Amino acid sequence: MPQQHVRLAGSERPRPTRSVAIADPVDPNEEIAVTVSLRNAGKNDNPQERRADAEKVKESLGQYGLRVTDERLEVGSIEMTGKAKDLNRAFKTELRLYHSERQGVFRGREGELQIPADLDGIVAGVFGLDKRQVARRRVFPGSGDHGSFTPRNLEEHYQFPEGAGEGQKIAILEFGGCYFDDDTDTFCRNNGLTSPPVQIVPVGYTPPRNAQDLQRLSPTDLSNALEIAGEVMMDVQIIVGLCPEADISVYFADFDQKGWIDLLDRIIMDEPVTVSVSYGLAEDDPNWSLLGRDEIDRRLAAAADKGITVCVSSGDDGSGDQMDDDRCHVDFPASSAHVLSVGGTMIMEAGQETSWWISPGDRSGGGGATGGGVSDIFDRPTWQKVKVTSLNPKPTKDGRVVPDVAALAGPPWYQLTLQGETQLNGGTSASTPLWAALVARVNALLPVAKQHRFLTPLLYGTGTNSKPVGQHVCQDIALGHDNRSTPFPGRGYKVQPGFDAVTGFGVPVGIELLKMLETI
């Protein structure tokens, strides 16, 4: 007898943007893995209930031919695999193929999912049916010749404390791309460093690592992998250059919502000190599902509860964040209250550090600008006591303000190595791993009782002279262009003395951060 089904609220997805449906059907016998998120994911307050929920899910979905391929009960996830035709029956959907210029051919769906009625209140989300990308790259190739920054330059400019990240676990999250050991070795040799071991952790995606791996890719996959390679190598080389003695792991997943869920599950279980994430998408981009965004945020909250500081780039497209309308937007997951949101600066030839803005304020027009603003989705946390008002008419709420802090993103850029050649690069993709490296360097020098704490709310706490801690540990960026992107929305948040929605508290003063965290 067929099971009754109920709607899975929040699972609705529109047709993928900038895509067209194609006539070819999804192979009904294609094996597809989905991640089933259980209620209260991220927490493990009631292990007995969690085990009972898991058994119920396995029994119910097993009737449709789905089998368990991974269990992560600590965080509340079960991966199950089955044929496309069986997944269609289990979740009352129709998987289809789509094509976009950016992604090529991919599997997707439209509308809302349903789940067997006996799982109502137990299953919080199902991810992996739809492979549309929800992680935009932040890579920003630089140019110019007025002194690109090496690791030593960065340490000196931001007054990093002594050390090399000894004993610290640092995680880097990547979506697609490649990893080339030779480039890391060359980068370290050029900077007088010993190349450390870098652990590659496939989480549903195994990156190409040499020419032979690349030759096995289709033309579309090859183009995408090489395009993202610069992002991957930049993240790794900035952290390797600043923390060569740390335990560095690079986690790779696909670009979809399942990739985000699976990566964060691993992070929660592995418990690094800090995480660098240089990807995101406007928080209100229609390609997010409500459930996807919420379940990702639940896992970020769980990471913060474990004292993990997840550093996330605020975006490289100014106040518009690549949304073509007249509203200001902020990036997710940078807009989550459970991360350290990192914006960008640039250093003028005269040496003055200002907000990062290059006309017209977004990459599609050949420029770029730090993301920042006020969330329309996430409430302002009680600890974020700042006075910043949304530029949107009739804002939906007094939302979370981003970024929290900033660092170099624009000229004179970062000096890196890609495919054996020295290249300049930047964006908030670069400022983010810099902050992750600083968090690790500082943590290594703190007393044990002061280690492994989620940094962001501490910055908004009260330091000496009744000033926020952030004002004591950061150099204020009070000058520079607002972060408007043109033509959409054509306005942006202003840079001003003190905290603002362009560079947050400002750029780090590493030794002051160490001193302050020793006392609070």
Please explain how this structure is put together.
The strands form 9 sheets. Strands 11, 12, 13, 14, 16, 18, 19 and 24 form an 8-stranded mixed β-sheet that branches. The chain has a 4-stranded antiparallel β-sheet with strand order 4-5-3-9, with helices on both faces. Strands 2-6-7 form a 3-stranded antiparallel β-sheet, with no helix packed on it. The mean pLDDT is 96. It is built from 12 helices and 28 strands. With 520 residues, it is an alpha+beta fold. The chain is globular and about 70 Å long. The protein has helices spanning 47-62, 84-91, 151-157, 181-190, 211-215, 219-242, 257-270, 290-305, 428-445, 455-460, 469-473, 510-519, and strands at residues 5-7, 19-21, 31-38, 67-72, 77-83, 96-100, 104-108, 114-116, 123-127, 140-141, 169-175, 198-202, 247-253, 274-277, 281-282, 309-313, 331-332, 340-347, 353-355, 357-358, 368-369, 373-379, 399-402, 405-408, 414-418, 421-426, 474-475, 507-508.
List the helices and strands and how they pair.
Layout: E1 5-7, E2 19-21, E3 31-38, H1 47-62, E4 67-72, E5 77-83, H2 84-91, E6 96-100, E7 104-108, E8 114-116, E9 123-127, E10 140-141, H3 151-157, E11 169-175, H4 181-190, E12 198-202, H5 211-215, H6 219-242, E13 247-253, H7 257-270, E14 274-277, E15 281-282, H8 290-305, E16 309-313, E17 331-332, E18 340-347, E19 353-355, E20 357-358, E21 368-369, E22 373-379, E23 399-402, E24 405-408, E25 414-418, E26 421-426, H9 428-445, H10 455-460, H11 469-473, E27 474-475, E28 507-508, H12 510-519
Parallel strand pairs: 11-13, 11-14, 12-13, 14-16, 16-18, 18-24
Antiparallel strand pairs: 1-8, 2-6, 3-5, 3-9, 4-5, 6-7, 10-26, 15-17, 18-19, 20-21, 22-23, 25-26, 27-28
Helix pairs in contact: 4-6, 6-9, 7-8, 9-12
